Amino acid sequence: MRMSLLVICGCVLQCAFAETVLVANPKHAGTKLTTEQVAGAYLGKKVSLADGSVLTPINQTEGKPARDEFLTKVTGKSDAQIKAYWAKLAFTGKGDAPREVGGDADVKKQVAGNPGLVGYIDKAAVDGSVVVVYMPE
Amino acid sequence: MLALIVAVASAHAFAIDLQEDGSFKLTGFYNLTAAKVMSGIDQQFGLSDWHYQQWHCPCSIQNWEYVGVYEKDKGWQTTPESLVGVQLKKNFSDTFSATAQLVSRGDNTSFRPYTPTVDWAYLSWKPDADSPWTFQAGRKRIPLYYYSDYLYIGYAYPWARPAPDVYGWAIYAYDGANVTYEHELGSSGWSVTANAWYGNFKSKNNPYDTLIYDFTPGTTEGESWKDIWGGYAAVTNGTYELRLMSMQYRDNIWSNNADGTQTTLTDHVFTRITGLAGNIDYKNLLVRSEIDRFQQSANSPAKFVYDYALLGIGYKIGNFTPMYTFSRYRVEPSTAIFVEGRNTSMFSVRWDFMKNTALKVQYDISKDHSEYPYPFFGDSNILSVSLQGIF
User: Fold this and answer.
1) Domain count of chain A?
2) Is the dihedral of CA B211, B213, B217, B218 positive or negative?
3) Do residue A61 and residue B149 have CB atoms under 8 angstroms apart?
4) In the list B30, B80, B87, B332, which could disulfide-bond B101, CB 3.0-4.6 Å?
């Protein structure tokens, strides 16, 4: 009984504090991005790496747990503030929000197939097809 | 109709794909605003009940471009500012796109109410997907002041509307071209954006000139801005932002007479508008400030210098953003026969209560400092409730 309770508690704790990480194509193994670079990327800037390559961010679909968790943590802005920011850019012709691709599996598939993309997934979903380039503090 | 849009907006993610490959998207925005003039007087003439032009005052002008005016004796009104807009954007490639924005307003004095107008229609091109340069041609709103080019995207700003004392001229769009340059300043976190535009715009029956300032029965007025040259440069690090703007054009205003003739009122007058905006978004603190000047040529029979400004401070508490904003405009007395001016205090709260939607409640206390030989809009206190969102 006690063991079951411990297992249940452990699962609840893990679920409540699910971590999201930013992943890229394995070509970028060893690259570590800063919070400023990642926050900037999800607010319209490209990420330029030392080797000259440019990373374009992709988003999970609205409603996916990883999306709110990652974006608000990294940018320090609420969902409404981020939406308002992108509405301003989208409706004045200054830019579009990062493309939405789906959930963890879709992000991994996109990133694994394109060294120019970077996206966030649940840490538990990381596998050999991608490398972690940023972990929110 | 707007209730349906709100329901759709809350159900859908931002943007609707019109083509499976995601290259043709429909997005939109809406503003449902109800406002009531609670009280008002004309201090200059000591009147509690008067008329200015077609309006029975106490009254309050909250939108100058389309002349959205609320009148106390009409109680709660929903048509002067409510609207819905859709944007269609087709990406032909990573570097070339076409965009059109149609807006349907509840009380559009230029056309039949609710008839959509083409507010924006332009092509956009970049030399390559990562280029700092973007070239556009077509019709866009003039990015005059900080909120000018997204004046109707209520979801993107804290108030029910940006201060009417600052925002609103007779002409607010241009047909022409523009170029944008964006650059990040190393690893400092600062970036700079510069935009330069050229164009012209003609409004044959202009509501601002006709309804607000034309006193001749049976006539309308038109206005055109020709040889519009403008530019702005903005620097930001995400917390602080500074924006400097300057624009010049030749102003023409004419009267369309009842007998079909036209009379020139303002002829090719050189006009310059300059502005400086400084904003802060530091943790939960918001600061919005602007100072602007409008000047017309000294040789013009209608020479004006208008100075106007706003300063707002807000604080985010959870999903609520209360804010106090002060705005002011004045015609410089030495530059005009009559002074027109106003001071306004705005108390607003924005509540982000639902995805993609914000509810705003705002109370404005506005004092008329004009010195016309007749009562103008006068003082007014107005309560506004706005539901604004995107889809």
Assistant:
1) 1
2) negative
3) no
4) B87
A125 inside domain: yes
| ipTM value for the complex | 0.90
pLDDT in tens, B185-226: 877 789 999 999 999 999 999 999 999 999 999 999 999 999
Average pLDDT over residues A109-137: 93
> Distance between CA atoms of B34 and B96, rounded to whole angstroms?
40
Q: What is the pLDDT of residues A79-119, one digit of tens each?
A: 899 999 999 999 999 988 998 999 999 999 999 999 999 99
A54 touches chain B (CB under 8 A): yes
Which pLDDT score is estimated for B299?
A: 58
Distance CA A84, CA B288 (A): 16
The reply to whether A14 falls in a domain is no
Q: Which helix (H) or strand (E) holds B136?
A: strand B133-141
Residue at A8 is within a domain:
no
CA gap B145, B142 in Å, rounded: 9
Q: What's this model's pTM, rounded to 2 decimal places? A: 0.91
* CB pair distance less than 8 Å for A91 and B180: no
Residue A130 near residue A112, CB atoms below 8 Å? yes
Q: Given CB atoms, is B388 within the 8 Å cutoff of chain A?
A: no
As separate numbers, helices (DSSP H) first and strands (DSSP E) second, chain A gives: 5, 5
Asked if residues B290 and B309 have their Cβ atoms less than 8 Å apart, the reply is yes
SS3 content of chain B, % helix, strand, coil (to 5): 5, 60, 35
Residue ranges in chain B modelled with pLDDT below 50: none
Domain interval for residue A51: 19-134
Residue A13 clears pLDDT 70, i.e. is over it: no
Residue B271 bridge partners (DSSP): B249, B296
| Token digits of residue A136 | 């929110």
**Mean pLDDT over all residues of chain A?**
86
Position B173, amino acid: A
How far apart are alpha carbons B41 and B378 in whole angstroms? 6
Mutating which of A55, A61, A91, A114 best tests the B interface, going by the most B Cβ atoms within 10 A? A91
> Does the pLDDT of residue A17 top 90, yes or no?
no
Torsion sign (Cα): B246, B247, B248, B252: negative
Q: Do A87 and B155 touch (CB under 8 A)?
A: yes
Nearest by CB: A84 against B155, B283, B319: B155
Query: How far from the centroid of its chain's Cα atoms is residue A58's Cα?
Result: 8
In terms of Cα–Cα distance, which of B115, B125, B155 is closest to B31? B155
